[in-house]
Design a protein that fits this description.
three-stranded mixed β-sheet, two-stranded antiparallel ribbon, 11 strands
Length: 158
């Protein structure tokens, strides 16, 4: 399922990130085109390669269906690149090795870590970010803490 982006401005911003990356050497493998349809602004799912860590596409959020793929030389470098961001909502690792996933999860500075999936919401788990990716939590019992106030009751019969 693919829905529209939040606005025309958001669509144009995503397109500008794509074009800036292309000008700096990245390549579009698939997608990359936006269209207005029934009052909504849509961007084709876009797969990009030959991206670099310092590109705006890799450093700024866009909330668009863009997947920039950048190979790394080691787990340490992958963790370094994930942490080299002012954002920290989610990260994902795709591996069959549970130990690698645990090492990754322990060392990345994100609120949510996925193994072999991405952006799946589970009401039992908190949805939370770190750094400039929000404060507080949503979902799970932890999500209620920001919108409720505990009341202590001290009753003594007698």
């Amino acid at each position: 399922n693919l829905g529209p982006l939040v606005s025309e401005k958001a669509t144009k911003y995503a397109e500008s990130q794509i074009q800036s990356a292309v000008k700096a050497g990245a390549k579009i493998v698939s997608g990359g085109h936006a269209t207005k349809l029934s009052g909504g602004f849509f961007l084709e799912p876009t797969l990009m390669v030959d991206v670099k860590q310092d590109m705006e596409l890799m450093q700024e959020e866009n909330f668009a269906p863009i997947l920039p793929v950048m190979p790394v030389d080691s787990m340490e470098q992958a963790i370094q690149f994930v942490n080299d961001s002012k954002y920290g909502l989610t990260s994902a690792i795709f591996t069959k090795d549970m130990n690698k996933a645990k090492i990754f999860a322990e060392n990345v500075n994100t609120g949510t870590v996925f193994m072999n999936r991405c952006d799946y919401l589970d009401p039992a788990l908190p949805w939370t970010g770190v750094k400039d990716s929000g404060c507080g939590s949503a979902l799970s019992h932890l999500g209620f803490l920001s919108v409720t106030r505990a009341k202590a009751l001290h009753f003594k019969k007698g």
